[in-house]
Amino acid sequence: MRLNDKKKQILEAAIKCFADKGYQATSIQEIADSLGIAKGSLYFYFKSKEDLLVSICKYYFERIVVKFWETMEDPHLTPREKLIRQVIDSYEQFVGHSDFVKVLMKERFEVNQEIHELIFSLRAQQLSGNQQCIVELYGEEIRPVSYDVATIFISMINGYMGFVIMEQIKLDFKMVSEFLLDRLDDIVDGMLAKQTKPILNTEEFEKFFASNPKSGRTTKAALAEELHAIRLVVEKLNKKPEELDEINMSLQVLEAELDKKEPQVVMVKGMIALLKSLKIPELKRHLIELEAYIS
Description:
The model is unreliable at 213-218 (pLDDT under 50). Helix content is 75%, strand content 0%. It is mostly helical. Helix 1 packs across helix 4. The chain has two domains: 56-206, Tetracycline Repressor, domain 2; 217-294. The chain has helices spanning 5-21, 28-35, 39-45, 49-72, 79-96, 98-106, 113-138, 146-165, 173-194, 202-211, 220-235, 241-258, 265-277, 281-294. It is globular, with a radius of gyration of 21 Å. Residues 27-46 bind DNA.
């Protein structure tokens, strides 16, 4: 979401007003007054206070998601380092955007469909990314309960986040990250030792995230993001040259078709089916999501 300077100024002023006074209690006039501009000038950029709130969520969520995947896809980091880095990044980002986080934590505004989809998409991506990283760190034996482990890990991060944001308690983020990873080790060891049955079934959970219409990722931008993620996975595959050629050819056809104004659903489904038939575990989630978007 690219913003010009004026729009960015309005968003930052609005979130400051929402944090100080509350979303419901803040008027468009007050936001305009804080900027020293006419109320009509603000309406030139945003049609309503709700539209302004949606734009704020898009602006901040995009930055959170981009940073999250930069860490998760960093080839120079081990899985454990990725999880540690993610904890530190999360705290640093939320402290840097503390006014926005306070509004989300404190307010009980009526969340419209668009904001609900943004929140769902953020949570889905964080859960999915952490689940993959946890399997990479602890091995395939943890996969059956990997979504449960990821959920617990995210909950631990958010639990300490509340003290940092709402109570303004100063914590050493590096120390917290290492502490949480040690506790994650304990949790995983306990689950494996007890052969814990999952609460969140892995296969059903993946289908749920892929097919839920509230995921907020049904646009061409979302499709492009999935294809980009698939490309990154393919680059790291240890396959024979002829197998890689087949995969890349299928991806080229798929990308060309999805780039059309009116893609042929039959062609897209055919290419997805071909890629699924190759039975590459790393591609499974992305292909399920692509299939859900065009269904």
